[in-house]
From TrEMBL:
Its cofactor is K(+). It catalyses: GTP + H2O = GDP + phosphate + H(+). The gene is GTPBP3. Gene3D superfamilies: P-loop containing nucleotide triphosphate hydrolases, Probable tRNA modification gtpase trme, domain 1, tRNA modification GTPase MnmE domain 2. GTPase component of the GTPBP3-MTO1 complex that catalyzes the 5-taurinomethyluridine (taum(5)U) modification at the 34th wobble position (U34) of mitochondrial tRNAs (mt-tRNAs), which plays a role in mt-tRNA decoding and mitochondrial translation. Taum(5)U formation on mammalian mt-tRNA requires the presence of both GTPBP3-mediated GTPase activity and MTO1 catalytic activity. It comes from the Eukaryota. HAMAP family: GTPase_MnmE. One of its GO terms (cellular component) is mitochondrion. Homodimer; forms a dimer in the presence of potassium. Interacts with MTO1; forms the GTPBP3-MTO1 complex composed of homodimers of GTPBP3 and MTO1. This is 5-taurinomethyluridine-[tRNA] synthase subunit GTPB3, mitochondrial. Its main location: mitochondrion.
Amino acid sequence: MWRGLWTLVARAARGPRRPCTRQGSSTPVPGSGATIFALSSGQGRCGIAVIRSSGPASGHALRSLTAPRDLPQARRACLRLLSDPRSGEPLDRALVLWFPGPQSFTGEDCAEFHVHGGPAVVSGVLQALGSVPGLRPAEAGEFTRRAFAHGKLSLTEVEGLADLIHAETEAQRRQALRQLDGELSHLCQGWADTLTKALAYVEAYIDFGEDDNLEEGVLERADSQVRELEVALGAHLRDARRGQRLRLGAHVVVAGPPNAGKSSLVNLLSRKPVSIVSPEPGTTRDVLETPVDLAGFPALLSDTAGLREAVGLVEQEGVRRAHERLEQADLILAVLDASDLASPSSCNFLDMIVNPGGAWTSNGNSQRLLLVLNKSDLLPPGGSDPSSDLPPHLLLSCLTGEGLDGLLEALRKELAEM
């Protein structure tokens, strides 16, 4: 058990312990002999575009494109005229920055050109850099790979950087920043330190076990530390699904009987007309899915066919697919018509989906469920509450938007606990 734990923790902690290779070091770094360049900001028209180079010829590239030819002060923005080194034709007046290694993102000499973001300007500067001897276009992710190779980023920080670039919601951004700041690296380092101490206790017992001066309980202390570490690693691995949900989005399935307002709810939550809304029952016959931001959390929202005895082969297949999505769901939004709770379709849906505990049970696994009573605007004002016998639920009107804030808050709590 100890050997396996040591291997797991040592590999997880290897990133933060990687030495920072300085320029001129004898340690080989993949691709370190070439100088690379690329557009570091997004594609398309923009106010400012950032073009970066990294490698030993970055200083030469900066001098080749700028006038005057001397390098600017390190890490200070300087306004320079950029010219094509082949023809001398002016390309742009831009801010340039010089980052001598190893104090740079990649650990190598780096230069940045902050040019105007028009396609012609960006293309001209990239072509000019390509004409400088020793420079070549960077491969996808090569700047980050060099930062990792030079010990500027650990593996978990590289993953955090990728997640931050692709983050679309607040929850994704927060998680990516925590990982980029080294939270996981520090956790792995702590595990490695704990295991190293336990191994030291064991080695001390082996070497000096018969020595009266050896402190009592050494083996018991090592065993306790290893068992605590095993519990911590197991808990972390079990929590991996939560990180995956934040990256890919939780699967939220909207289900209910026909004409309960499922498609209206999907359109309301996605803020766009994803599904056709019609008073005719059975309008939605297939599963319609759309990625959404639900209260700051990424989610894949699925609109499903109304659950009832199918009246045709096409609707029968739609109902089958709806049940399939329910089994795969991380969270179910069970939708009922608040003005028609006594109908056979509503009663059958309640019996089938909502048990007394308020959870749908699929293959023995309890799934999270929110019961939503839609069309609350159709309830008579001041009348008796027809939903008093139901499990905890939320009242909502997709027509007026009343109750939407409460639903979003409930969704936020459910998704945060996943």
